[in-house]
Amino acid sequence: MAQARPRSQVMKVTDAAAARIAELMARGEGVGLRVGVKNGGCAGMEYTMEWAKEQGKFDEVVEDKGAKILIDPKAIMFLLGTEMDFQSSALKSGFVFNNPNQISACGCGESVQIVPAAA
Question: How far apart are CA 100 and CA 10, in angstroms?
Answer without folding.
Answer: 12
